[in-house]
Amino acid sequence: MRKKDKTIGYALVVMFALMIRRYLEEAWAYMDITVKEAIKCLTLIVTQTIQIKNKPLLQMIPKPNQINENLLNALHMKLPKMLPSKGVKVATRKKLFDRRKK
Q1: φ and ψ at 7, to 5 degrees?
Q2: Per-residue DSSP letter, 94
Q3: Is residue 61 within 8 Å of residue 45, measured between CB atoms?
Q4: Are 72 and 79 in contact (CB under 8 A)?
């Protein structure tokens, strides 16, 4: 049985997700692209780290391709050209080999 607080929290998160999805659908409706396809396109935006003497200094964001630029413009978003680098490495994929049966 779920606790009341957890149920309310879950419902809140789901409602926010639905609101975001609807906003994206409306913004991108004229582009004939689904939200899933658009987000997949936006994953192509990456940063390039500039290092001096092996110390990260800046992260540059290259100009996005035309599709990504259109997606961002529809949301009235503009990417910065540079970000300060914190030197933190982020792993985006879980390593499964440690959890697999041998």
Answers
A1: -65, -45
A2: -
A3: yes
A4: yes
pLDDT of residue 49: 80
Residues ≥6 apart with Cβ < 8 Å to 42: 68, 71, 72
Could you give the angle at which helices 4-27 and 35-42 cross, rounded to 10 degrees?
80
Residues forming beta bridges with residue 50, ordered by sequence position: 58
* Rounded-to-integer distance, Cα 87 and Cα 36, Å: 30
Residues, the chain, total?
Answer: 102
Which residue positions in the chain have pLDDT lower than 70? Answer: 1-2, 56, 87, 90-102
Residue 96 CA, distance from chain mean position:
23
Dump strand ranges (E) for 1-102. Answer: 48-52, 55-60, 82-84
- Among candidate residues 96, 27, 87, 34, the one with its CA nearest the CA of residue 57: 87
